[in-house]
Predict the 3D structure of the following.
Amino acid sequence: DIQVTQSPSSLSASVGDRVTITCRASQNINSYLNWYQQKPGHAPKLLIYTASILQSWVPSRFSGSGSGTDFTLTINGLQPEDFATYYCHQCLSLPYSFGQGTKLDIK
Amino acid sequence: QVQLQESGPGLVEPSETLSLTCTVSGGSISGYYWTWIRQTPEKGLEWIAYIDYLFHIGTTKYNPSLRSRVTISVDTSKSQFSLKLSSVTAADTAVYYCVRHLDSPNSGGFGNWGQGTLVTVSS
C-alpha cells in the first residue's frame, strides 16, 4: 500500500501570509495526487487534482506542484476563509490513501 | 449541480450490519465512479470501496482491510448507491461519506461529497 505523509500536522499563520503544506508518498505516484479542504462540520472539498489543476471554485492564490513522491500545496496571501484542514490523497493505486491532514489556524 | 445525501441508522449494535444509502440528485448514476469514505479523529479519512458506472458497469473495488465485510451496490432506478458493512465493532464508528469521482479512478479525485452521516456502533 502507498502511504502519504503530510507536514506539518498543524500550522498557525496570519491573514496575508504565504503558507506551504507538503505531502510525501512512499513510492512514485507520478502526478496522481489531490488536495482537499475541510472546514469543521463539513465534508472535504476537492481543491486541486492531478497535483496542480485547480477546481473551478478555487481562487488563484492556491497552487499545487510536484510529481513522483514530493508534492506541495501553497496558499499565497491567506484569506480568513482559508483557515481549515487540508488533506492530500493519492489515487495511483488501491487502496486510495490520504494524508493525516494539516490544520491551518489563525495566529 | 449534483447533490449526494447519505441516509441510514445513526446507531448500530455491535456485530450487526451497517447499511447506508446515498441518494443522487441533479445528475445520473451512469457515467461515473461512486465511492464510500469514512472519517474518524483517530484514523482520519479512509477509503472503503467504489463501484464503476462509467467503464465496467457494476465493477466493484474494496479496501483490503474491509473487503471481507463490505458490499457496495447501485440501484439506478432509484438513483441510489448503498454500503453494507457487516460484523461492526466500535472501531467502525465514523462519519460516512458518499462520493462521486471527478473522473476515472486514477485521475481527478473525489469531486462531489455528501454531507456525511455519523454512525455510532454501540449497544
